[in-house]
Amino acid sequence: MQVSPFLSTKNRPQLLEALQNQTFDLLIIGGGITGAGIALDAVSRGLSVALVEKGDFASGTSSKSTKLIHGGLKYLGQGNIGLVREVGRERAVLYQNAPHIVHPEKMLLPIVKGGKFNRFMTSIGLWIYDHLAGVEKSERRVMLGKRGVLAMEPTLEAGLVEAGGLYTEYRTDDARLVIEVVKTAMNHGALCTNYLKLDKFLYTEGKVVGGKVTDSIGGNSFNINADQVVNAAGPWVDIVRKKDQPSEEKELFLTKGVHIVVPHAKLPVKQSIYFDVIDGRMIFTIPRDGITYIGTTDTEYSSNLDEASCTKADAEYLVNAVNRMFSSPDISLDDIISTWAGLRPLIYEEGKAAGELSRKDEIFHSETGLVSIAGGKLTGYRKMAERVVDICANRTDKPTKPCHTQQITISGGDLEPEQIDNFIKQLLDAYSGSIPGIEQKQIQNLFNKFGSNTKSVLDFAKTSIDAKHDLEQRLLTAELQYCIESEMVTNLTDFFERRTGRQFFEPESVTGNHSLITKTLKTEIPFIISNLTKPELLEPPVFSASNSDKS
Ligand code: FAD
Q: How far, in Å, CA of 485 to CA of 482, rounded?
């Protein structure tokens, strides 16, 4: 497969021109996982595809999740058998197609005094969960007594724990998953563009035939023509639908979910844990590369969709939950090094509270032909895309293939999981001569982001001639160069937050290298330099003053 020249930020002017020069079979609004998945499914079936994203790819909910590829144990409790089965089975497909960003992760579910679950229910629940999801025998749940749980996780509060269950989930990097799917779609011929906002729809005889978009970098507006349009705008789906038809019956119900990050030394959990909070909710603590992240909250949200953030009350809720559950010294708000807040676009159901609403996806049809999709999970994106593209394929006279994304390797994922260690060793052998001092762990870190494309990153590091830079800086600028050439990075936040996760997980590497990256961006892509000075970029992790998210 040829690599799309439009993946390079340097080719953005040509990409914008190409968007104006043809009528696409499909225009997709929204570059989160839903839109990206639809783009890949549609283009691989033979449709011509354009996708526009008003911010960066994954800048909406798709970079603010708990970062689990999971079957959604919680949804079993809600009786949502279909969702659990579908996303459970999708985990295996994703692990196969993107093993660099999907890692098996054991999850400990402690059964606590006065908690939601007892040992019998947990054992049955996890058994059903494993069977619905088609989990391999060797990975199925194991039930543990109190001693077993505490041996496995000594940081838990012994007085609360009665027993527990250990089951298999998968950890991912949500924003990287989106960009890898976008890259794969681009390599198949889709034209996907960030920082391009849909302003209004275009119509012929009452049917939607494209949209007028504005480039928030260059400032100019133009039309994109398409036979069909799909609205995959996540929490913004209703706002986009209202541009098409003033009001429709079903509305989305938005809830906010916040995560906080503390150094691992402050909450030294040995593995991921899913535990009860006193109010009956469940939250995760997940260790990852020197930090532990904790989440999530689930509260109604009706303020500005572009400004969802972690309030002091959100952070206190998570800190209190952790301090009750763990015997390690209490954490405080001062220990928090970063936070993120995402919005769940849930389908409104009369009389149900935020935590009770189903996470299933739903497709809305408008009389103009606009198809909108909302809800669902990161994990189930491929099947959501299949359902949407089935609709679009049925409506077009153009011959289309059946969905075959199950067989499409995601960019960077063209290795079997068992080949990865060997691949990393081969890279070390190949590059240790030209990048003095490089170690296996640094290549492993790059691999966890870029998979088999790590080779291209190392090629940039190899040719780096700036002798002033130490090895870490040399690798960092090589990552940036790769992200400019192949991942459409235009500014600091794209790079530090969504392409590398450093803003959340290694904030010190951001402050320490801010000016180095700014300088490289200025040199590499001078025509988008205005974007670098935007004030909202790279804010430190402060809590918004308001304790309420209702406007
Ligand atoms: P988004 O990612 O929000 O994408 C929509 C995009 O549309 C946005 O980027 C937005 O900028 C763009 N857009 C809006 N208006 C316009 C316009 N006018 N023009 C152009 N573009 C526009 N799922 C899991 O599987 N595992 C998890 O661990 C998990 N944890 C979660 C935790 C939290 C706190 C939350 C909130 C959700 C979680 N989910 C999880 C669910 C999952 O994150 C979402 O289902 C998924 O990310 C939604 O993706 P999306 O593409 O539909 O929406």
A: 5
CB of residue 454 inside a 6 A radius of ligand 1: no
Q: What is residue 415's predicted lDDT score, i.e. its pLDDT?
A: 95
Q: Are 228 and 248 in contact (CB under 8 A)?
A: no
The C-alpha angle 511, 516, 518, rounded to 5 degrees, equals: 90
Task: To the nearest 10°, report the CA torsion of 120, 275, 89, 126.
Answer: -10
Mean pLDDT of 457-471: 84
- Residue 36 Cα: closest atom of ligand 1: 51
Contacts of 268 (CB under 8 A, 6+ apart): 155, 292, 328
291-337 pLDDT tens trace: 999 999 999 999 999 999 999 999 999 999 999 999 999 999 999 99
Report phi then psi at 330, rounded to 5. -55, 145
Distance (angstroms) between ligand 1 centre and the Cα of 35 equals: 9
Mean pLDDT of the chain: 91
Q: Check pLDDT > 90 for residue 111.
A: yes
Q: How far is the CA of 306 from the centre of ligand 1 (A)?
A: 12
The answer to pTM > 0.85 is yes
Task: Using the mean position of ligand 1's atoms as its centre, give its distance from the Cα of residue 285 in Å.
Answer: 21
DSSP H helical ranges for 245-330: 312-325
The residue-averaged pLDDT of 186-198 equals 98
Helix (H) or strand (E) run with residue 480 in it: helix 471-486
Res 535: pLDDT: 40
Is the CB of 65 inside a 6 Å radius of any atom of ligand 1? yes
Atom of ligand 1 nearest to the CA of 52: 20
* φ/ψ (deg, to 5) at 252: -80, 155
Cα 453 to ligand 1 centroid, rounded to whole Å: 25
